Amino acid sequence: ALICQDEGLVPIVEPDIVMKGEHDLETAMAVNIEVQSTLYKAMLEHGVYMEGTILKTNLVNPGLSCDTDYSVEEYSVMTSF
């Protein structure tokens, strides 16, 4: 992100969560929050101008092997945190 800004570009950061596993939607949400928090903390520590970045969010999904069926509403609530 800092290299982009040094070159006059707006960095688009897109953290992604691996869908492999049995984790449920709530766990995926917690991991998403942790990953985004860690990413932004690291960018701050490296001197990235935060107001000059774009966060490309992803859809929060349970693991591919999760047995629980979730509604569209549940997906939307977890994704729009």
UniProtKB/TrEMBL annotation:
Keyword Calcium: no
InterPro entries named in the record: Aldolase_TIM, FBA_I
Pfam families, per database record: Glycolytic
Top EC category: lyase
Cited Gene3D superfamilies: Aldolase class I
Tagged with keyword Lyase: yes
Example GO biological process: glycolytic process
Transmembrane segments: none
EC number from the UniProt entry: 4.1.2.13
This protein's UniProt keywords: Glycolysis, Lyase
Pathway named in the protein's UniProt entry: Carbohydrate degradation; glycolysis; D-glyceraldehyde 3-phosphate and glycerone phosphate from D-glucose: step 4/4
Gene Ontology MF: a single term: fructose-bisphosphate aldolase activity
Family: Belongs to the class I fructose-bisphosphate aldolase family.
PANTHER family: FRUCTOSE-BISPHOSPHATE ALDOLASE
Protein name, as recorded: fructose-bisphosphate aldolase
